[in-house]
């Protein structure tokens, strides 16, 4: 009898784990490549158990609303160092697994050899540690080691992301490295709001930025999003279309005209930036993606164009060749 009961409980657990949350099941297909993000801005530090409890409550809310990836603030549950995995990441992982969402869980990390870092841990939809980012520019007085690992790109099932933390805001080379890594979104867990430099980086590099200090989620155009959900105090959620694509007019004008003509009703020019000479294209038909069409029509995205130009012009400079 005990053996039968144990097997039954195991089967129930496996079935429960295999069923997607209702919000995920009911989600309708959207044009482009849309994801839902949540910035849980519950503040830096504090008493560990109370802050972890608050974080868990917020993650329940985010999960129930079908969020794909939620981010907590810098060292949100206090500054007592712990390993990875450890008590805080384990507790957060349960919610990630339950709701099948990614969660960025910033902690003070106790690493080998007594080393301590300000670390943001990425937990995947299965509740497993998928990676971590250690703060490169540690703030004065943190008493922690600055990371030697630099900026990282993390592959998710919806795209590539990077994480930068708080004081990293002040060092443009890190944001350039995120662009070099071809990321779609940069998450920025922080102890403060950050403000206009974040908008400037989004404008310059054309990726979304999700600040987790004040919840001012920033569009690829550099504007702070106005259409943001606030399901509970200090939680900000938004749907981001990672397929929206900037294209420079250089060498692309006729190709873009052809793409738009042949996919009228499926792709549209969201905006034309005349001074910058940029097109911004987006899909308006589920199942159709601008990035795929750009490859089909031989169109470089703005980022691809810049990266290629940098490489080739630097090579010409090195070999003293004219452009």
Written overview of the protein:
By secondary structure, the protein is α/β, with parallel strands linked by helices. It folds into two domains: 29-241, Carbon-nitrogen hydrolase (Nitrilase/N-carbamoyl-D-aminoacid amidohydrolase, 4-Layer Sandwich); 245-318. The chain has nine helices and 13 strands. The chain has helices at 2-18, 22-25, 48-64, 87-99, 172-180, 196-205, 253-262, 290-297, 302-318, and strands spanning 34-40, 69-71, 102-110, 116-123, 129-134, 154-155, 160-163, 185-189, 208-212, 235-241, 245-248, 267-273, 278-283. The strands form three sheets. A six-stranded mixed β-sheet has the order 5-4-3-2-1-10. A four-stranded mixed β-sheet has the order 6-7-8-9, covered by helices on one side. A three-stranded antiparallel β-sheet has the order 11-13-12. The protein starts with a helix and ends in a 5-residue tail after the last helix. Mean pLDDT is 93; it is low at 1-25.
In terms of topology, how is this protein built?
Layout: H1 2-18, H2 22-25, E1 34-40, H3 48-64, E2 69-71, H4 87-99, E3 102-110, E4 116-123, E5 129-134, E6 154-155, E7 160-163, H5 172-180, E8 185-189, H6 196-205, E9 208-212, E10 235-241, E11 245-248, H7 253-262, E12 267-273, E13 278-283, H8 290-297, H9 302-318
Parallel strand pairs: 1-2, 2-3, 7-8, 8-9
Antiparallel strand pairs: 1-10, 3-4, 4-5, 6-7, 11-13, 12-13
């Amino acid at each position: 009898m005990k053996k039968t009961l144990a097997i039954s409980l195991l089967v129930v657990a496996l079935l429960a784990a295999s069923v997607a949350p209702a919000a995920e099941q009911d989600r309708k297909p959207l044009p482009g490549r849309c994801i839902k993000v949540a910035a849980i801005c519950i503040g830096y530090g504090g008493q560990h158990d109370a802050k972890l409890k608050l974080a868990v409550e917020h993650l329940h809310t985010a999960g129930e609303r079908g969020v794909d990836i939620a981010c907590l603030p810098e060292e949100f549950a206090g500054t007592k160092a712990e390993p990875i995995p450890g008590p805080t990441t384990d507790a957060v992982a349960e919610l990630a697994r339950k709701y099948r969402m990614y969660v960025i869980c910033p902690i003070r990390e106790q690493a080998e050899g007594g080393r301590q870092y300000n670390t943001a841990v990425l937990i995947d939809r299965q509740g497993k540690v998928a990676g971590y980012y250690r703060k490169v520019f540690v703030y004065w007085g943190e008493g922690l080691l600055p990371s030697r690992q630099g900026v990282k790109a993390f592959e998710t099932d919806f795209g590539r992301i990077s994480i930068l933390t708080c004081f990293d805001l002040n060092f443009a080379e890190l944001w350039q490295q995120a662009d070099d890594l071809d990321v779609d979104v940069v998450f920025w867990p922080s102890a403060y709001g950050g403000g206009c430099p974040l908008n400037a980086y989004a404008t310059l590099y054309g990726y979304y930025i999700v600040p987790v200090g004040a919840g001012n989620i920033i569009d690829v155009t550099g504007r702070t999003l106005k259409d943001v959900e606030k399901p509970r105090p200090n939680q900000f959620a938004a749907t981001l279309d990672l397929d929206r694509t900037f294209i420079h007019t250089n060498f692309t004008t006729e190709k873009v005209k052809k793409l738009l003509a042949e996919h009228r009703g499926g792709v549209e020019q969201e905006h034309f930036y005349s001074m910058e000479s940029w097109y911004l294209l987006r899909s308006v038909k589920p199942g159709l993606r601008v990035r795929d069409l750009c490859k089909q029509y031989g169109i470089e995205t703005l980022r691809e164009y810049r990266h290629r130009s940098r490489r080739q012009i630097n090579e010409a400079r090195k070999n003293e060749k004219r452009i």
